[in-house]
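# step 3/5: fold
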Amino acid sequence: MMAKLPRWHRVLFSPACERNKGPILAVLQDWLPAHAKVLEIGSGSGQHAIYFCQQIAGLTWQASERQESLMDLQAQLEVQSPTLPPAIALDVTDAGQWPSQSFDAVFSANTCHIMPAAAVPHLLAGASRVLRPSGLLLLYGPFHDGGVHTAASNAAFDQHLRSLDPAMGLRDAIELVQLAQNLDLECLADLSLPANNRMLVLGRQ
């Protein structure tokens, strides 16, 4: 009988990350400064951290996850990209878990619609605190505008998420931008990406 692999040996893989890494990379190459230091919120499988550091010379990428998922993420990074800094535990609602150092950018993909709606303002506020004066907050995923979805598939996905947990669901890009403006973060770009996704680029002008 084959022995069961230890928990740390599991291979994490996200099909969504594999599909979207190319379009996201193009945005990062356009917007990030040279030798950027980036904090990723909700690194999941670590695929974005690994791929972007392979593709962008001089990039420093700080991966993070909630405590319960940190061990799996770190094991993945150690195998696939041992030169990356150790992943850190970060719950966006816990101000004490946000890093004390500053970053050129905070990046998060497909997290806003998964985290509870009440956590999203904490994400924006925490990012505002750790960003350098010219720093950027880059939020990738599906969004709606005042309840108007950009595609029927997004509306169906939103309904599905809310059926699983009423606290989940696609977020209103207009509302996100307004919340960001209260933190002195302006919407610098709202980029349309494949599969009805968008990248909101927020920063101080």
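# step 4/5: annotate
The chain has six helices and eleven strands.
# step 5/5: archive (pending)
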